[in-house]
């Protein structure tokens, strides 16, 4: 289980953003296949997961993701970690789905024709070959987010991070996309406010004020989180003010 | 986004983009000394005949010059006022001919073929860090985000209308620009997350 | 500032200029209800926000897309034809105008943003744009420069002045709300 080539480990990691310390002195190892991350808005969970892809540099400590250490540079981290963002409209950078998928392969040095063929094959595999040439802005939110996920998967990352990717989707679409995620071989880090969605995960990590509040089995952590957040004393709008 | 391109397989579609562009460029220089009425009229007739070879659908594309017509009327009026209507007619005929000829290329050449055709011209720009890869990425980003920005504007209009019962205002411009600028942070983050504009080490 | 960010910013301003030419025309009460297209306002904004290099590249990128056949000029015009039409000079003027706006904005970065925006908007966004537009129109329409100015530029200058005012307002709003986006002044 503690094979570092298939695991994430934070060692006294701090992350600063615009002069403020968002993550302070986090040390945690995440060897499990599927890990959920929870916490209030502004707790630092988005910042923490961005460091996995190298999007945000860590300011102290060290981070190792599937054998790649933060010291090797952001680009090396981006190669092992795929990242799915909250809003597909900000993530899809090409006018059509096929171009979006082949872009990832082109990034890895695959030739134009090969990249197109493999992109089309992946769309077929997921039963959406007919979307290949359609303008992206005409697709539904669910279709867009699926394209985002496929655009990440086609690059064969070892770890896939999803930062609240389903927040604008309806129940049905969420369930369908979640089933697709369950089948993946990659390690999954899933940041979410929907606690139910994390109940069958291997571990849940609770972040509060830039620190690890709790790490453990979903049944324990989710219950503790819910109890903590919904108990009367904490019912104020701190999260709203911060967001 | 609808481009001017008209899908088809005519002789003009099959002609290499480079040949078409070169023809346009050379012709635009060659006609300069021939400043007579009959020549300009013949030139326009030749260009319209090119459209006609594409069939009925092709001939209809001549309509693209419609937005220019009012300005052409003004040009004619100015020349008429100065007592030299013939020069005005010549100028208008040549303008119509050259605009239509240039658009003939746009109508019969796919965007990608055009891009490939002009790519060598941009090679010297590599010195400034503008690689073909970056150019095509930038082109793709614009095509992708024009409709997104139009949707953002429409949603601002909706919010404005809900509160003022008016549907459009200069007051929307500043929030529109702010939205667009904030979006660039997210999009560039998404690009960086997948290896950035230059991709991963191609080793 | 990463190169990915620069690339995305250039592309976004190109898209913004296109979008401003395609959104419904805005009717201004103060100008007697004249509808104006906001495209050249986008050109001014590109220079004011991005500075001369990126602002100029944003306009160049837009013109490149237009040449590729995309309908991104005001009213949905596009194609190689527009570069052979009588307004081709104004398109060249958009490019040099954005560069000039950005350069003036940068030179005045230590002064009041409203002042800088007005000066750069009038000089770069109006004078430079028309300085390229008028000679080409005169040549294409076989007119004197004076006549070309009378029919091709003069009628549009009141609208252009309104656009400088609007661009200034936007620049002022962004300088207050999101100062990091004013790259011309950093």
From TrEMBL, chain A:
* Domain (ABC transporter): residue spans on this chain: 8-234
Q: Kindly list the residue ranges recorded as spanning the membrane.
A: none
Q: Which terms are listed as keywords in the entry? A: ATP-binding, Nucleotide-binding, Transport
The superkingdom of the source organism is Bacteria
Recorded hits in PROSITE patterns, A to Z, give: ABC_TRANSPORTER_2
Q: CDD domains this protein is in?
A: ABC_cobalt_CbiO_domain1
UniProt family annotation: Belongs to the ABC transporter superfamily.
The record ties this protein, via PANTHER family, to:
ENERGY-COUPLING FACTOR TRANSPORTER ATP-BINDING PROTEIN ECFA1 (PTHR43553:SF24), HEAVY METAL TRANSPORTER (PTHR43553)
Q: What protein name is recorded for this chain? A: Cobalt ABC transporter
Query: What lineage is this protein's organism placed in?
Result: Bacteria, Pseudomonadati, Pseudomonadota, Alphaproteobacteria, Hyphomicrobiales
UniProtKB/TrEMBL annotation, chain B:
Provide the alphabetized UniProt keywords.
Membrane, Transmembrane, Transmembrane helix
Question: According to the UniProt entry, where is the signal peptide?
Answer: none
In the record, the note on similarity to other proteins reads: Belongs to the CbiQ family.
Q: Report the principal subcellular site.
A: membrane
InterPro entries the record matches: ABC/ECF_trnsptr_transmembrane
Q: Does the keyword Repressor apply?
A: no
Which residue ranges run through the membrane?
Answer: 21-52, 64-83, 95-115, 135-156
Report the subcellular localization. Answer: Membrane
The name this protein carries in UniProt is Cobalt ABC transporter
Topology in the lipid bilayer is annotated as: Multi-pass membrane protein
Q: Pfam families this protein is in? A: CbiQ (PF02361)
């Amino acid at each position: 289980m503690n094979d570092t080539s298939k695991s994430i480990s934070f060692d006294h990691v701090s992350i600063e953003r615009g002069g403020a310390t968002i993550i302070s002195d986090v040390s945690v190892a995440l060897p499990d296949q599927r890990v959920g991350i929870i916490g209030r808005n502004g707790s630092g969970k988005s910042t923490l997961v961005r460091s996995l892809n190298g999007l945000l540099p860590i300011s102290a400590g060290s981070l190792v993701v599937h054998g790649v250490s933060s010291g090797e540079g952001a680009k090396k981290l981006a190669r092992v970690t795929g990242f799915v963002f909250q809003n597909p409209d900000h993530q899809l950078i090409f006018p059509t789905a096929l171009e979006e998928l082949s872009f990832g392969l082109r990034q890895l040095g695959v030739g134009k024709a090969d990249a197109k063929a493999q992109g089309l094959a992946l769309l077929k595999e997921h039963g959406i070959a007919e979307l290949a040439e359609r303008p992206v802005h005409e697709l539904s939110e669910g279709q867009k987010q699926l394209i985002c996920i496929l655009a990440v998967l086609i690059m064969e990352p070892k770890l896939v991070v999803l930062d609240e990717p389903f927040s604008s989707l309806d129940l049905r679409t969420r369930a369908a996309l979640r089933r697709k995620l369950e089948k993946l071989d990659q390690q999954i880090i899933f940041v979410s406010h929907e606690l139910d969605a994390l109940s069958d995960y291997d571990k849940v990590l609770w972040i509060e004020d830039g620190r690890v509040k709790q790490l453990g089995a979903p049944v324990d952590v989710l219950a503790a989180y819910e109890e903590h957040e919904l108990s009367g004393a904490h019912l104020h709008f701190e999260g709203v003010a911060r967001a | 986004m609808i481009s001017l391109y008209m899908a088809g397989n005519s002789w003009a579609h099959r002609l290499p983009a480079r040949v078409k562009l070169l023809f346009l460029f050379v012709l635009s220089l060659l006609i300069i000394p021939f400043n007579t009425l009959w020549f300009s009229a013949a030139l326009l007739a030749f260009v319209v005949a090119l459209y006609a070879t594409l069939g009925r659908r092709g001939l209809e594309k001549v309509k693209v010059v419609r937005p220019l017509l009012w300005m052409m009327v003004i040009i004619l009026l100015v020349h008429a006022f100065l007592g030299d209507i013939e020069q005005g007619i010549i100028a208008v005929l040549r303008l119509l001919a050259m605009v239509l000829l240039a658009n003939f290329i746009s109508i019969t050449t796919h965007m990608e073929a055009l891009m490939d055709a002009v790519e060598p011209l941009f090679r010297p720009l590599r010195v400034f860090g503008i690689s073909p890869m970056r150019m095509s990425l930038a082109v793709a980003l614009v095509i992708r985000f024009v409709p997104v920005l139009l949707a953002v504007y429409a949603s601002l209009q909706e919010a404005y209308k809900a509160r003022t019962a008016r549907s459009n205002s200069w007051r929307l411009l500043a929030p529109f620009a702010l939205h667009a600028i904030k979006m660039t942070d997210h999009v560039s983050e998404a690009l960086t997350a997948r290896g950035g504009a230059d991709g991963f080490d191609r080793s | 500032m990463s190169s990915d960010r620069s690339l995305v910013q250039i592309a976004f301003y190109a898209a913004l200029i296109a979008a401003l030419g395609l959104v419904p025309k805005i009717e201004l009460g103060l100008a007697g209800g004249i509808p104006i297209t906001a495209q050249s306002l986008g050109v001014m904004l590109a220079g004011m926000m991005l500075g001369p290099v990126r602002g100029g590249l944003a306009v160049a990128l837009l013109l490149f897309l237009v040449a590729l056949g995309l309908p991104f000029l005001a009213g949905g015009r596009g194609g190689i034809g527009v570069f052979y039409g009588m307004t081709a000079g104004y398109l060249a003027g958009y490019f040099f105008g954005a560069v000039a706006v950005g350069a003036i904005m940068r030179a005045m970065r230590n002064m009041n943003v409203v002042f800088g925006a007005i000066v750069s908007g009038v000089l770069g966004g109006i004078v430079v744009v028309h300085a390229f537009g008028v000679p080409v129109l005169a040549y294409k329409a076989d007119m004197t420069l004076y006549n070309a100015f009378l029919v091709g530029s003069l009628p549009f200058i009141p609208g252009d002045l309104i656009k400088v005012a609007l661009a200034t307002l936007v620049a002022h709003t962004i300088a207050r709300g999101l100062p990091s986006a004013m790259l011309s002044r950093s």
